[in-house]
Design goal:
Blueprint (H helix, E strand, L loop, with lengths): L2 E2 L12 E6 L8 E10 L7 E8 L5 E9 L2 E6 L1 E5 L1 E4 L2
Antiparallel strand pairs: 1-8, 2-3, 2-8, 3-4, 5-6, 6-7
């Protein structure tokens, strides 16, 4: 099951192998990749520490400037409004 990756739930995914998805602009392929989320440093522009496995690199995700899910900042990829969703692989 996919869920938005947010500031509130990021700790649930630390140490987990995930596949991530983020929509792209019209006419382009969506972003997707596999990574192990190792940690987070909210003070950095790109706050995720990941072990990249394949596809697009999740370390390029950042907190979206506008959108919130239940009050929590959501991660975006490439541009604001490309909200990152994840599913646990193991």
């Amino acid at each position: 099951m996919r869920t938005f990756l947010t500031e509130a739930n990021i700790n649930d995914f630390i140490g987990k192998k995930v596949r991530f998805f983020a929509p792209s602009a019209d006419g382009n392929e969506s972003y997707t990749g596999v990574a192990i989320i190792k940690g987070i440093d909210p003070s950095r522009h790109f706050p995720l520490d990941v072990e990249h496995i394949e596809g697009d690199n999740l370390s390029g995700a950042f907190f979206d400037s506008y959108y919130r899910d239940n009050g929590s900042r959501v991660f975006s990829y490439s541009d604001d409004d490309r909200y990152v969703s994840v599913e646990i692989l193991k």
